[in-house]
């Protein structure tokens, strides 16, 4: 055969990726479990059909490919990926390359990378259907050599940020899917921070959706310029055809989740990496789902939010959101550094920030500044990079004021509160864990380190 790459799984993402690959001038052979889907896809490919070879069996797919072969899997994560690989293996040679582009758990990618008798890459693909069709962000994991084999196609189809492709090798084995996991956690947190500021505007300041839309639209010209702030403005501005009022006012306040943010929170706990803003965002979605209980408790205690008196200050809110966002990213990159250490990956934070600048849901202007800051000071926390030291210094007072106002007026801002507590804890040399160590030694003789002479495994006078 002479197709450059094969693709299995013509679902939403697979079809979009296949068209993207064909459009960039590569010949692609495609296969789907349900043959009718393959036929419809090929029939509707228009101008791109010439570059697309539809196949109706795995044998035909294999025969259509150049050797050594390259096959991209875009099927649901989990068992299906294993089953699909099982079915393919008898048809493959050791130097054929399988690329799992689904949302796989990075532990599965680690396992497959170690066990499979063929070449393997696990790539995180972000940006939804639109991204897959016109330029996703791609986070690659596996051997560098295998990445280099696939890179001509993957960088060609990826989003472009000022001439640079948003596709890169993140590290060995499951590193690509791990980085995608952190991306997803940050996505939850970024969204929650925005939703909290919306809550302060709506419940504290009594602003209507149209006014709120205008504020977010304005913010999208400043430091907060990002896809999420942009769509927030659009969501807030949209009108409901049934009521003639804002769509926002008819959307139930119950958040769905596919569990990707939860993965991030769980992995961070395994790594001992603090990501409290992401934790708060996951918890906020869990709380949102408890609508009936919230309704009952409002009956008992009365509603939380009270109006905030005085002149609304949008700049203060903008600064608080900016501060919270920086602290959330500091946590995400901190988690990446912890994984680098624990898993022996050499994850490059600057390269990761660069890959996130376009194509993915968390794309933003600030990620370009983060890439620069992380590049200049490898191994240092984002918070300690001079550019962000300036920002945090300038905005932390606003975060403090907004959290205080919200707390005093019964408005829950868990992600902002978590960001502020993280900031204060992280810049405090002498914390309060001496008390924890005293307690632990008291009830469990766990021992402590003395501050004055550094001696270890010391016990208090309560011992014995
Ligand atoms: P879809 O449900 O649209 O498509 C799933 C595809 O997998 C179909 O082609 C389906 O074939 C095939 N498939 C399902 N079960 C099996 C099976 N048991 N054996 C063989 N083939 C099977 O999924 P998406 O395209 O949305 O998602 C694919 C992957 O991409 C997932 O891992 C997802 O998490 C990930 N992803 C999705 C994003 C999105 O925005 N949707 C964004 C980023 C990643 P058939 O036609 O026969 O049913």
Automatic annotation (TrEMBL):
It catalyses: 6-phospho-D-gluconate + NADP(+) = D-ribulose 5-phosphate + CO2 + NADPH. Gene3D superfamilies: 6-Phosphogluconate Dehydrogenase, domain 3, N-(1-d-carboxylethyl)-l-norvaline Dehydrogenase, domain 2, NAD(P)-binding Rossmann-like Domain. Keywords: Gluconate utilization, NADP, Oxidoreductase, Pentose shunt. Its EC number is 1.1.1.44. The active site is at residues 180, 187. GO terms for biological process: D-gluconate metabolic process; pentose-phosphate shunt. One of its GO terms (molecular function) is NADP binding. It is an enzyme of class 1 (oxidoreductase). Substrate binds at residues 103, 126-128, 183-184, 188, 258, 285, 440, 446. Homodimer. It comes from the Bacteria. Catalyzes the oxidative decarboxylation of 6-phosphogluconate to ribulose 5-phosphate and CO(2), with concomitant reduction of NADP to NADPH. InterPro entries: 6-PGluconate_DH-like_C_sf, 6PGD_dom2, 6PGDH_C, 6PGDH_Gnd/GntZ, 6PGDH_NADP-bd, 6PGdom_BS, NAD(P)-bd_dom_sf, Pgluconate_DH. Belongs to the 6-phosphogluconate dehydrogenase family. NADP(+) binds at residues 9-14, 32-34, 75-77, 103. This is 6-phosphogluconate dehydrogenase, decarboxylating. The keyword 4Fe-4S does not apply. SUPFAM superfamilies: 6-phosphogluconate dehydrogenase C-terminal domain-like (SSF48179), NAD(P)-binding Rossmann-fold domains (SSF51735). Pathway: Carbohydrate degradation; pentose phosphate pathway; D-ribulose 5-phosphate from D-glucose 6-phosphate (oxidative stage): step 3/3. Residues 176-463 form the 6-phosphogluconate dehydrogenase C-terminal domain.
């Amino acid at each position: 055969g002479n197709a450059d790459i094969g693709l299995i799984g013509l679902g939403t993402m697979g079809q979009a990726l296949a068209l993207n690959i064909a459009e960039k001038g590569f010949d692609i052979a495609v296969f789907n479990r349900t043959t009718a889907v393959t036929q419809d896809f090929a029939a509707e490919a228009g101008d791109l059909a010439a570059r697309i070879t539809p196949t109706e069996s795995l044998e035909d797919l294999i025969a259509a490919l150049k050797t050594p072969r390259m096959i991209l899997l875009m099927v649901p994560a989990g068992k299906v990926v294993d089953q699909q690989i099982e079915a393919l293996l008898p048809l493959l040679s050791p130097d054929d390359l399988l690329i799992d582009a689904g949302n796989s758990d990075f532990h599965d990618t680690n396992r497959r990378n170690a066990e499979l008798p063929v070449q393997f890459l696990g790539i995180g693909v972000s940006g939804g259907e639109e991204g897959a069709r016109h330029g996703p962000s791609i986070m690659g994991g596996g051997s560098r050599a295998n990445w280099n084999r696939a890179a001509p196609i993957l960088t060609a189809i990826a989003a472009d940020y000022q001439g640079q492709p948003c596709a890169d090798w993140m590290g060995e084995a499951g590193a690509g899917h791990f980085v995608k996991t952190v991306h997803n956690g940050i996505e939850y947190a970024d969204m929650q921070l925005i939703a909290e500021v919306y809550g302060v505007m709506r419940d504290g300041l009594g602003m209507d959706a149209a006014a709120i839309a205008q504020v977010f639209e304005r913010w999208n010209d400043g430091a907060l310029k990002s896809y999420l702030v942009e769509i927030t403005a659009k969501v807030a501005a949209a009108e409901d055809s049934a009521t003639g009022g804002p769509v926002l006012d008819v959307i139930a306040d119950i958040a769905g989740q596919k569990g990707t943010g939860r993965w991030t929170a769980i992995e961070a706990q395994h790594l001992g990496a603090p990501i409290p803003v992401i934790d708060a965002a996951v918890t906020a979605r869990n709380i949102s789902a408890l609508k009936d209980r919230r309704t009952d408790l409002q009956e008992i205690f009365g509603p939380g939010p009270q109006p905030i008196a005085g002149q609304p200050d949008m700049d203060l809110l903008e600064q608080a959101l900016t501060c919270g966002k920086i602290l959330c990213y500091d946590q995400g990159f901190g988690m990446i550094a912890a994984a680098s250490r624990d898993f022996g990956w050499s994850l490059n934070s600057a390269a990761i920030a660069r890959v996130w600048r376009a194509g993915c849901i968390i794309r933003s202007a600030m990620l370009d500044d983060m890439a620069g800051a992380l590049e200049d000071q490898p191994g240092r926390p984002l918070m300690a990079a001079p550019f962000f030291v300036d920002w945090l210094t300038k905005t932390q007072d606003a975060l403090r004021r907004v959290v205080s106002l919200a707390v005093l007026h019964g408005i829950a801002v868990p992600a902002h509160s978590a960001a502020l507590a993280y900031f204060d804890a992280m810049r405090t040399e002498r914390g309060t864990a001496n008390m924890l160590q005293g307690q632990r030694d008291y009830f469990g003789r766990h021992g402590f380190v003395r501050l004055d002479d550094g001696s270890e495994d010391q016990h208090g006078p309560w011992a014995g």
